[in-house]
Amino acid sequence: MSIETNETLFEQCVEAIARQDFETANDMISRNAQLAMHVNSKNWSLLHFVCRYSGSAGDGKSAQETVRRLVAAGSRTDARTSEGRSVVEMATQWGSQHLLDGVLTNPTHSAAALSTSQIITEPSVYFGASSLNFSRVSDKREDPAALSQLLTNPDALFLPMPMGSDSSVLLTQSGDALRWLTHKDLEACQLDVVRILNEPRSNDPTLVLLGVLNNNPKWALDVSECQTVLDYIQNTLALSFKKPRPAAYALTAVNEESNIYAQARSILDWHARYKFCSLCGSATVAANGGYKRKCSSAKDQCKSHGSVQNSCFPRTDPVAIVCIVSADGDRVLLGRQKAWPPGMYSCIAGFMEPGETIESACRREAKEETNVTIGARVQYFSSQPWPFPANLMVGMFGQTIVGGEDISLVDNELEDAKWFTREEVMAAVGSSNASAGPATLKTAAPYAIAYQLLKHWVDGDFKWNDNQGKTISSSKM
């Protein structure tokens, strides 16, 4: 079937779904199974359109049948639009609960395709998007033969990042995808990555195996000291590196790339900071596909050779970020730092300390920064990698106790902190329930987990789970 015919059938099927003629759509899918794999220019599949238009479709059985046929034909339930919206999120937004309860979140669904598809039901977070199409192949990192095979694979791609520069993101001309280098590119730069992998030296550019995406091995390469590569990119490719912020926030063309970028930047940053052994001071070299640094001293000269040292492995720094809800459930506490734009406030956050639970970190940060007291209700929401340089943002909700809501800026980390109403936050996050008129509050952008916390609170998507097993709507907190 030609591309033109496929496009026409896809459009006709979308039109049938839009008018809720699922009987016609089901017939078209049965006769043309390839439609299940097709997407439009905005990466919308038929599954996205069903979730968008089936919210008021009677009892929903016909729409459920459409979903079953699409999934059985290979439609990805983890697919996201170019705006980053998942199938589950769209079904929730447009009231397609009959799909959520009956098909998409049913783990015992009979369609064989469901057992091979990753159904992502947690909130979508930027830098955290992943799918079954991408594997970190961590089991290959200590296998020299496997690493060599992945490196010499003709389809292998390399992400150049000059970590010693303020500008380290290389994008395509469109500006929404990473620009990868091929073996042909590296040969033109006379860069011998095979030698770097097999015979690493302390002054070599760092080479890191990121994983395999759609059968393409992906590697990251710190090209800070590789002038031939830098010249090639500037003169031959006519491209230039961009500053990570905001360039790293624009990776929307490929679903998994923001996550792969976060992985690459965090690990290469770690390599750049840990060039010497913390036990003996000798130079270190990359090992295990870039997931370890090994001391270059003789085995009998350093304890790191005989035991596992955490300094030899990449680090991730957990940060508790908490949406603090008032005792009556109608307001949230937000703070602002002096360097932020005027009018901008966000959720309270801070690094976790050794020997501390996430819940305790939320209570401590709230008390230290604002003097408010979070009580028994502290609940996990979602997490987000934040590669500046290697943080893991742990998103939480916490509720204050009655009488514990008076604000006092205790440690001077914040310039200000205020309680905001649901209506004020609705306007700031662009909620569909917001009243008309300009927003007086500015808050985090959609790519930040703080935005997701606030949006799920104002839209009522978040639910408290009591210790007794009861679930309470966020609107009744």
Automatic annotation (TrEMBL):
PANTHER family: NAD-CAPPED RNA HYDROLASE NUDT12, NUDIX HYDROLASE, NUDC SUBFAMILY
Transmembrane segments: none
SUPFAM superfamilies: Nudix (SSF55811)
Protein name: NAD-capped RNA hydrolase NUDT12
GO molecular-function terms, A-Z: metal ion binding; NADH pyrophosphatase activity
Enzyme Commission number, as recorded: 3.6.1.22
Enzyme superclass (EC): hydrolase
Taxonomic lineage: Eukaryota, Fungi, Fungi incertae sedis, Chytridiomycota, Chytridiomycota incertae sedis
Cofactor(s), names only, from the UniProt record: Mg(2+); Zn(2+)
